[in-house]
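User: Design a sequence. Structure:
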């Protein structure tokens, strides 16, 4: 296990505060650290890797495997706010940026697998039960509905976390689980006064 403070320190060296949501990273680290190990974790929407690396840090040394699924890895670049030039946009190699952050935290390339596809295109190839699913991909109603199909792979007792509990995300998830009594909402995200949406956490019953 690698301390969350170690990960946050490395993230803060690299990214503008606009990209850092410390409370939700601490939440992800905590939930990952509570999993039985070795664990299997899938993240939909990895981009620059802060959340994926945070969960990998909590599971470091347990032979767990984490998978980041994002089509940005196929294009090879993404754009982000430069830490040292807050009003400029910087293009970087997306996969290498994730790897570089992970290595700086002491996480090996073997602990994290990066999948350069959309989640619903990769889903038919998947056949492994999950301990934790983190969804932070496209936030439209139709993409979230497709991402919800990954819920069937979460083990009894496992967790699913949805970021940005916007109207379309909330509607798609609640519709999907409406007739699935095995799914329970442990914590529902709310709209903060400053405008940030917080995560919603679901647990699959035994």
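Assistant: Done.
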């Amino acid at each position: 296990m690698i301390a969350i403070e170690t990960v946050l320190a490395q993230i803060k060296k690299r990214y503008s505060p606009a990209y850092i949501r410390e409370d939700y990273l601490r939440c992800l680290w905590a939930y990952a650290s509570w999993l039985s190990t070795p664990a299997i974790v899938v993240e939909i929407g990895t981009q620059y890797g802060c959340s994926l690396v945070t969960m990998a840090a909590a599971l470091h040394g347990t032979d767990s495997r984490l998978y980041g699924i994002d089509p940005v890895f196929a294009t090879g670049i993404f754009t982000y706010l430069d830490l040292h030039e807050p009003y400029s946009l910087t293009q970087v190699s997306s996969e290498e940026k994730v790897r570089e952050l992970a290595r700086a935290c002491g996480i090996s390339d073997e602990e994290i697998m990066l999948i350069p596809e959309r989640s619903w295109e990769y889903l038919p190839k998947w056949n492994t039960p999950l301990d934790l699913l983190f969804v932070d991909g496209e936030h439209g109603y139709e993409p979230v509905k497709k991402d919800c199909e990954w819920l069937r792979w979460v083990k009894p007792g496992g967790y699913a976390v949805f970021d940005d509990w916007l109207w379309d995300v909330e509607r798609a998830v609640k519709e999907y689980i409406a007739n699935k009594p095995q799914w329970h909402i442990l914590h529902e995200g709310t709209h903060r006064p400053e405008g940030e949406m917080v995560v919603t956490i679901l647990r699959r019953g035994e």
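The mean pLDDT is 87. The helical segments are 4-14, 22-33, 50-58, 72-75, 94-104, 119-122, 141-148, 167-177.
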